[in-house]
Amino acid sequence: MYRCRWCGAAFEEPDAVRVRENLDGENGWWSHTVESCPFCGADECEEMEEDI
Fold it and tell me: Which superkingdom is the protein from (predicted)?
């Protein structure tokens, strides 16, 4: 389980968004994945400890 630090929502898996950033204005592209809250879109999600 994950919890969003912004809206407080709990969810199973965060949304994964593929992002391409131009680093130097020429040919320096960086492609990476950002995990975000499926409810509010914030990228500050933390994995919750599971109580057993």
Answer: Bacteria
Report how far apart, in Å, the C-alpha atoms of 14 and of each of 2, 18, 23, 25, 26 are.
Answer: 7, 13, 26, 30, 32
Check residue 17 and give left, alpha or beta (phi > 0: left; psi -120 to 50: alpha).
Answer: beta
Residue 31, Cβ density class (10 Å: 0-12 exposed, 13-18 middle, ≥19 buried): exposed
How far separated are the first and last CA of the chain, in Å rounded? 13
Strands 45-47 and 29-36: unpaired
Global confidence as pTM: 0.70
